[in-house]
Amino acid sequence: MSLKTDLPYRPNVGAMLFNARNEILMARRTDMPGAGGPIDQGVWQCPQGGIDEGENPRQAVMRELLEEIGTDRAVILGEYPRWISYDLPDHLIGRALGGRYRGQTQKWFALRFTGQDGDIRLDTHLPAEFDRWQWVAPSRLAHVNVGFKRPIYEQLIPEFSRLAHLPSSGATPE
């Protein structure tokens, strides 16, 4: 057995945050090549993070938003019906995620952003995980470098784009 298959998946949540124009918040990672450069460089992702012990995924996604982008001004529109797992690329095994995991198993949520752009603050999490953010139309996501996580976004976009077009009443559909 390889080291990769000996390691477990880390439980994680992901937040596909939509603004009023149904664009998705994408943030550029500080720990990847291209960080600090022009907006067309670097590796971008939606906010995501681990689930703490005793925490349910809905609690975790709101906490992660607050930690990573400085605000939890959002309502949950829905969640992807299945957990999505991914393996880290071989060169990251034993290095990323504290070296303890082969990848992550994620519960993804579609959320409607209820705040203002000024509420988004990447400097509240130290060290900062992201150095820049932008709103991206779902149709343009194919042009954004999301690295090895592209299959996850391709899986989520069709379902979450439908949810994002629901009226934002503040209610959470079941």
TrEMBL record:
GO terms for biological process: nucleoside phosphate metabolic process; ribose phosphate metabolic process. Its cofactor is a divalent metal cation; Mn(2+); Mg(2+). A motif (Nudix box) lies at residues 49-70. PROSITE patterns: NUDIX, NUDIX_BOX. CDD domains: NUDIX_Ap4A_hydrolase_plant_like. Gene3D superfamilies: Nucleoside Triphosphate Pyrophosphohydrolase. Keywords: Hydrolase. It comes from the Bacteria. GO terms for molecular function: bis(5'-adenosyl)-pentaphosphatase activity; guanosine-3',5'-bis(diphosphate) 3'-diphosphatase activity. Its EC number is 3.6.1.-. Pfam families: NUDIX (PF00293). Residues 8-158 form the Nudix hydrolase domain. Belongs to the Nudix hydrolase family. RppH subfamily. Accelerates the degradation of transcripts by removing pyrophosphate from the 5'-end of triphosphorylated RNA, leading to a more labile monophosphorylated state that can stimulate subsequent ribonuclease cleavage. This is RNA pyrophosphohydrolase.
